[in-house]
Design brief:
The strands form 5 sheets. Strands 5-2-1-6-7-8-13 form a 7-stranded parallel sheet, with helices on both faces. The chain is globular. Helix 1 crosses helix 8 and helix 5 runs parallel beside helix 6. Helix content is 42%, strand content 16%. The chain has one domain: 3-Layer(aba) Sandwich (Rossmann fold), CATH 3.40.50. It has 11 helices and 15 strands.
């Protein structure tokens, strides 16, 4: 029996790497879109590609391409005939979207349209998953569910909202099997270093090891619903296994402030956060989103999905990973006699 084929855009990102792991474990053949860069950017999936210098998962294939170019997208969908398509690729940093709004709109917004249109024109009966975002709710009061009004407050959120409505339009207008997963914040040690949770975890680890004197952050009062990324990619898969295409909110249902994350991370290392954290206006957004909190009762009822990792455990996982990474650097430098750096 032939393996089920899945296509993932954003393969080398946090979610793409965890989703690839998950699907390979389910016996899929996984293909992923990788944006070409001048430096190697496959660190999150190298453990899937190689083991002991040899090819590890021949069922995982990367393809260079970009969501701003429809040619490669069209060719991949037509030639692979994937049973499932996961559109996770995006310019995904909210603060950066204010600095490059046109690029964000092109990749995060129009990129989704290019994938949907390629799927429609191919005639393939694949199932399409769109990575929608809780940022679309913006100024809408919490808790937010599938019926809450969207009030986006960033170019990123607006681009995601464009993609959301395109999925709905293609589902209703062309009968495509297309679903939105409206995921609230989900974190892990694979989170990009410019995202606040990873920045906090790394800062705490470096301060604990005496490598950094302080940690500069923006709005400490912003509230988010934080969960553990590997559990959220399983929700993506479950959404595409549902009997009918639909839209689902995915989150923990519990909100914490950035200040809570900071306090928990520093307390884990028995440090007083107020001695090390400085608020820096450079890290504030032009328009802030005050509070996001998921009402994921629909996903729990129809999909049977619910989170397992607590907020406190998530913080510990991220700090532990940063400490282990620092210790590994020191260990390697000691073994080679190189000067101590981290």
């Amino acid at each position: 029996m032939a393996k089920k084929i899945a296509l993932i855009s954003g393969l080398t990102g946090q979610d793409g790497s965890y989703l690839a792991e998950f699907l390979l474990g389910k016996g899929y053949e996984v293909h992923g879109l990788i944006r070409r860069a001048s430096s190697i950017n496959t660190a999150r999936i190298d453990h899937l590609l190689f083991r002991d210098g040899a090819e590890y998962h021949p069922e995982l294939v990367g393809h260079y391409g970009d969501l701003s170019n429809s040619e490669q997208i069209t060719n991949l969908i037509y030639n692979l005939e994937p049973a499932e398509i996961y559109n996770l690729g995006a310019q995904s940093h909210v603060k950066v979207s204010f600095e490059i709004p046109e690029y964000t709109g092109d990749v995060t917004g129009l990129g989704s349209l290019r994938m949907l249109e390629a799927l429609r024109r191919s005639g393939i009966k694949g199932r399409f998953y769109q990575a929608s975002s809780s940022e679309m709710y913006g100024g809408s009061p919490p808790p937010q569910n599938e019926l809450s009004p969207f009030r986006p407050r960033s170019p990123y959120a607006i681009a995601k909202l464009y993609s959301y409505w395109m999925v709905v339009n293609y589902r209703e207008g062309y009968n495509l099997w297309a679903s939105n997963g409206i995921l609230f914040n989900h974190e892990s040690p694979r989170r990009g270093e410019t995202f606040v949770t990873r920045k906090i975890a790394k800062g705490v680890a470096r301060i604990a090891r005496g490598l950094q004197p302080e940690l500069r952050l923006g709005n400490l009062e912003a509230e988010r619903d934080w969960g553990y990324a590997p559990e959220y990619v399983e929700a993506m898969w479950m959404i595409l296994q549902h009997d009918n295409p639909d839209d689902f909110v995915i989150g923990t249902g519990i909100k914490h402030s950035v200040r809570d994350f900071v306090k928990t991370a520093f307390a884990y290392q028995k440090l007083d956060w107020e001695q090390f954290v400085k608020v820096d206006p450079r890290y504030f957004r032009p328009t802030e989103v005050d509070s996001l909190q998921a009402d994921c009762s629909k996903a729990k009822k129809l999909l049977g999905w619910e989170p397992k990792t607590s907020f406190e455990d998530l913080v510990k996982i991220m700090v532990d990973a940063e400490l282990a990474a620092l210790d590994k650097v020191v260990e390697n430098q000691t073994a080679t006699g190189a000067p101590r750096r981290a």
